[in-house]
Design goal:
This protein is an all-alpha fold and about 270 residues long. Helices cover about 75% and strands about 0% of the residues.
Length: about 270
């Protein structure tokens, strides 16, 4: 009897075991980061896996090496403005692709999706030349502009718009609302879960953006937190405790955004329309 029960429970046991291992592997880098932030460089290189007493020394070293308010402001400005503009333009495009019919619609949409296959490395040099001719090198505008029309977010909004009740749009037209009013006062409130999920995705991408800012931003006054932490890690004699402090600070905003909008994110990814 016990053997039969064990056989029935075996799939659940294996499932929970696999999930526990996956969860530990996911959380372990954060645990190691927190432990390393409290240890000296020598202890980190030795592989010490217990908390130390050098936390405040590492914090002071990081604050002395980095203008923290400035780099956080630079990162926040790029992430917030870039996210807001990307969501507005991408949601307008997704709404338009789904609501307005044309014989060229699907061809243009398919062509846009093909751009997802083009790696950033292939357009990096032409994009840099464009920004140089526009005299936008070493400006935050050069970071924001290439991201405001995201093919993936447009695709995401169009797929979500398929669940949007067309009866609401038809009723609004009967009441005399114009298309921009329907989008602003009906579509956006109804699709708020989709906007929340898109916000999390785009904000994290903009906050963690590294390669393009590394190429475009050249002065210390314009650099973001990711570039500063990377420069500390790539110095001739990196102080890993200081680097871990910077990594923790750079991680906190994305963790806060995700957990603050976790419920809306899940609803948006599941296609919830209210």
């Amino acid at each position: 009897m016990n053997a039969q029960r064990l056989v029935r429970l075996l799939p659940s046991i294996l499932q929970y075991l696999f999930l526990s291992i996956a969860a530990f592997l996911s959380v372990f880098p954060f645990i190691w980061m927190g432990i390393s932030a409290t240890n000296t460089n020598a202890h980190i290189l030795e592989g010490k896996m217990s908390f130390g007493s050098a936390f405040f020394d590492n914090v002071n070293a990081f604050m002395a090496a980095v203008d923290l308010p400035l780099v956080l402001w630079n990162s926040a400005k790029i992430a917030i403005i870039g996210t807001a503009v990307t969501m507005l333009i991408s949601s307008l495009a997704g709404y338009g692709f789904e609501m307005f019919k044309s014989k060229w619609r699907e061809r243009i949409y398919a062509l846009m999706l093909l751009t997802l296959m083009v790696p950033f490395a292939a357009i990096m040099i032409p994009l840099f030349m464009m920004m140089a001719k526009a005299k936008l090198i070493d400006t935050h505008i050069a970071i924001i502009l290439p991201t405001i029309a995201s093919a993936f977010i447009i695709f995401y909004f169009r797929q979500a718009t398929k669940a949007f009740p067309t009866e609401l749009r038809d009723a609004a037209k009967v009441d005399g609302l114009k298309e921009w009013q329907i989008f602003l006062y009906i579509y956006m409130p109804v699709m708020r879960s989709t906007y929340a999920a898109a916000f999390v995705i785009v904000f994290m991408a903009n906050w963690n953006n590294y390669l393009w800012p590394l190429i475009v931003l050249q002065s210390n006054d314009t650099k973001t937190i990711t570039l500063v932490v990377s420069s500390l890690a790539s110095s001739y004699t990196p102080q890993f405790g200081t680097v871990m402090i910077g990594t923790i600070i750079a991680t906190i905003p994305t963790i806060f955004v995700f957990f603050a909008m976790q419920r809306q994110f899940v609803q948006g990814m599941l296609g919830s329309v209210k």
